[in-house]
Write a structure and sequence with these properties.
single chain; 309 residues; alpha/beta; Rossmann fold; 5-stranded parallel beta sheet; 12 helices; 11% strand; zinc-finger; mRNA binding; zinc; endonuclease
């Protein structure tokens, strides 16, 4: 009996010393409820609750440090990304470069401007997808500016080339948009592009919702990368909340009543009345009744307190 009760309360997480002490005081035939009450009275807690009560020590990880766990993650993701409060960023390199080059030149500098903008905000997971054939020497019909930037971003494990090859003199290119949407969807990140990916929206209903909610459009103003402050519209989240895994909800703003003190709705009015900040909003009829009852009640109290009567 002693061993069965010991095993039972050990499974609940209590220490053996506390259990044995209680059984010695109450006896071996004590009921389980009585033993549990005595354990609680002694202040003994299960080990699971004690571990939750103790504050966990946060480990400081240097930004950009390599993972120490065995096995490499896909696309060389760092362990620091899992604890980062900012969403992963997946950039449509072709779209950004052509936008910066006014749709005439593939401007690699535009990609660098976008990457630097997210780096300054603290994003650690940034991936840029560009077709492999952009590594070829520039041609007259496909001009490329600042091509050396692609090599530098590739060395930093930021740039990823999508496959392409030549078959009988013709270039076979894989669809890089599918790479972009797929990686952003799996990483629960943000797509940076001015493309709406309508063909991929029709292809996968889950991608349709993701593209609608996680597409970050942008503009270049005098060589300055500028995404909108309201990516999902005027009534949507701010840019900071849009890029954060844990968005901070803004405090509700009460719209003042257009009628002001002349409002006759009382407590039924849905607007804010600054003249009544610390009192319950009463209707006009209730306010009049309260004003009438107040002097009547004072008069009755004076009559009761008057010793002459």
């Amino acid at each position: 009996v002693h061993q069965s009760k010991l095993d039972f309360f050990c499974k609940l997480g209590y220490g053996k010393q506390d259990i044995c002490k209680v059984l010695e005081n109450l006896g071996q035939e004590a009921l389980e409820d009585d033993v549990l009450k005595e354990l609680i009275r002694m202040g003994s807690k299960p080990q699971a609750l004690e571990s939750q009560a103790q504050p966990s020590l946060l480990k400081l990880v240097a930004r950009g440090s390599c993972s120490t766990s065995p096995g490499s993650k896909w696309l060389q993701e760092d362990d620091s990304d899992s604890s980062n409060h900012l969403r992963p960023i997946v950039i449509d390199g072709s779209n950004v470069a052509m936008s910066h080059g006014n749709k005439e030149v593939f401007s690699c500098w535009g990609i660098q401007l976008a990457v630097d903008w997210f780096r300054e905000r603290g994003h650690t997971y940034i991936k840029v997808f560009v077709p492999l054939w952009r590594k070829e020497p520039p041609r007259q019909d496909c001009p490329i500016a600042d091509q050396h930037i692609l090599e530098e971003l590739e060395k930093q494990s930021i740039l990823v080339y999508t496959p392409s090859r030549k078959v009988k003199g013709k270039r076979v290119v894989c669809y890089d948009d599918r790479y972009i949407v797929k990686v952003a969807y799996e990483k629960d990140g943000v797509i940076v592009s001015n493309d709406h990916y309508r063909d991929l929206q029709n292809e996968n209903p889950e991608w349709k919702w993701f593209i609608e909610q996680r597409l970050l459009m942008y503009s270049f103003v005098s060589n300055r990368f500028m995404p909108p402050d309201d990516p999902l519209g005027r009534h949507g989240p701010t840019l900071t909340n849009f890029l954060s895994k844990n968005p901070v909800l803004p405090e509700p703003k009460w719209q003042p009543c257009p009628y002001g003190k002349k409002c006759t709705y009382g407590n039924k009015c849905k607007f804010y009345h600054p003249e009544r900040p610390h009192q319950a909003q009463l209707s006009v009829a209730d306010e009049l009744r309260a004003k009438i009852k107040a002097p009547l009640s004072l008069g009755k109290a004076e009559e009761r307190c008057d010793p002459s009567q």
